[in-house]
Every structure is written in C-alpha cells, then in structure tokens.
Fold this sequence. Notes:
The protein contains 15 helices and ten strands. The chain has about 375 residues and is α/β, with parallel strands linked by helices. It is an enzyme of class 1 (oxidoreductase).
Amino acid sequence: MVTVKAPAAYYNEPGLLKRSGEYIHTLGSHALIIGGHTALSITEEALQASLIAAGIRVEIKTFAGQCTVEEIGAYTAIAKQLQVDIIIAVGGGKVLDLSKAVAEDAGLPIVTIPTIPATCAAWSALTVLYDERGQAAGYRPLLRSPELVLADTDLLAQAPPRYLAAGIGDTLVKWYEFAVNLSGNAGSVALRSSVATARLALDILERHATAVYKEAGQPGYEPDAAFTEVTDAIIWLAGLVGSVQDGSVHAAIAHGLHDSLTRIEETHDRLHGEKVAFGLLTQWVLEGKSGVELERLASWLHELDLPITLDQLGITADVQPSATSIAEGLVLREGAAAQLDFAVTTEALQAAIIQANELGQTLSQRSLRPTLVQTIANA
C-alpha cells in the first residue's frame, strides 16, 4: 500500500497575509489562531483584518512552550471549549507541529502560515514531539497534511537569515539521508520518489542557496524568484519528500543525531537545521567520503553559517565524552540500518563525530571567520 499526504493547496507568494481571508473562509467561519509571541506580533494586524473582512470570527491563543503531548492536549481542550471550526497556525516548527496535532485531535481543518523558512513543518503530516525540557520525544504521524499552506514570501524574507540557513541545512540533508537507503531498498518506488524529489530540492539549493542567504540579510532586501525557489525547496519539496510512503523503513542518520543532540542542554538554543547539518557532516565521515568531498560539504555549511564543530553547537566539554554521549543517543528505526551499505555502530559513530569536529575546527581556523551561531553564542 502507498499513501500520499499533501496539502490541498500551497501558496508561496508576496502579500498573502493581507489576502488570507479569501483562501481560508471556505474552510471555516470561527477560527482559533495559535502562534508564538513574535509571530503573532508581526502578523496579527494584517491577518485579523483579512479574516474579519471575510466574515471569520477570530480567537487567539499564544504558544510559547515545547510541543509536548500535554500541551497538545491542553490546546485541544481550548479548541473544543471555544467551539471553533478551524485552526490557523502561525509561526515556526514547534507551533505548527503542535497545531497540526490539535487540529487532528479536535477533528478540525488546519491552515498553516509559516513565519520563518526553517523547516517543512507547514507542509508535513507529522508532529515532532519534545518533552518539557526540550529533548526529542519521538514523532507522531498524522492522518493528513494541513488543508492549506499560506507561505507569504514577504513575511519569510523578513525573518532573521539564521532561520533561512537552518531551513537550507534541513533541506539539503534530505537527499543524502534518503539516497543512502537505496542500496538496501531500491525496489521501493515510494523511496525512489522521495529521492527524486529530494534531488530536485538539492539542485535548487546548489544553484541559489548561498547567494540567497547572503542577500537576505541585507537592509531593504526584496525577495526575488531565487528566494521563492529556495523557500519552495524548504517548505514544499522537503515536505513532499516525506509525503509518499509505502511502509518501508529508512535510516535517517542526520536527523537521528539531531534527536540525540537535543539531550545535551547546551545545544537547546541551536536550531533544528543547525543540528541536522552537523549530523550530515558526521554521516559523510561514517560513509567513508573522501577528504575532498568532506571539505567541500563542510565549506558549504560554513558559508551558510551552519555548525561544523561541536563548539559551534554549544558543546564546550571534552570532545571524547561528548562524542560518546551523542553516538550512544542515536536511535534508528528497527531494521533501518540494514538498508545501508556502511556500518552504523556506536564506536564508528563516535569516531566519525570526532573526525567531523576536527575537520570543522581546521576549516574554521583557516577561514578566520566566526559563524553566525558562534556570534550569537558569544553575545
């Protein structure tokens, strides 16, 4: 059996926020907007005006915690108490993931409005769960993707460039994570579809990501066609990679290392895509990539101000025990490692983390340029 979960409609255009009511009114007439403090502050006026003009009653609840099972239950109770007939999620990955689960539990349609281009959460039929301390607590597959995704290009372009870099990091990882599974599961058409989609996203990023990232941080930046393509890759194509499934398992090493890193408190102010990027560099070492290939990847990540050392992830403790802790924390789905043509043992992974860190240190010292995450950490 093959399942395909995708939104009924996806828009990535400038000025969508001011026209949001035109698209949302067919889905409901009494909305609960769930958003983070910053997200609501920059969207509330335009979004509410458009919804009210379209005849939609609005309730607003702020979300500022972790996407936990308990928080999902609490916001589901609020939605039921208010008797709304649609959920509108506004913000970054955690609020979008929480709101998708709330909508499912309340039996309501959901519209997602991402305010940062940092993940594919606006599209995916998945909620990433955490505990109250910010540690990864598993994944909750959802029955469907959001009914509607409204990605306002103007809004996304206003986000701090760090979020754009994190989204690029999370997206470029997709092809490398999925493609290595073909050696053990080449007969899966769903996997081949995901790999092909991830390759398209990677092609776009290889053409435009670095230039778009550097331009997006400049004063007065106006999003262009390249910016739209990059954000399409982050939200749409990365989301589509996971939309087609046939029940087969695959090993997602970089994302597994992200989950392990969340158990180290010092990394909690690092973004999802930042942790995943270092995870990919580690995966490449584990695969036995050549020094030239490793340096090319590390250089690209460094250009995007993504972490290539443990220190840049906030981990300043001794490398050896830190690498051991991260390696021991990697959990792959049962049977997933069998799809790979390289071994994933705790010892090999520990050595790969140390080697990736050493490569990153050498490259960082050679460039004499601190990354954005270093600058933020030292501020």
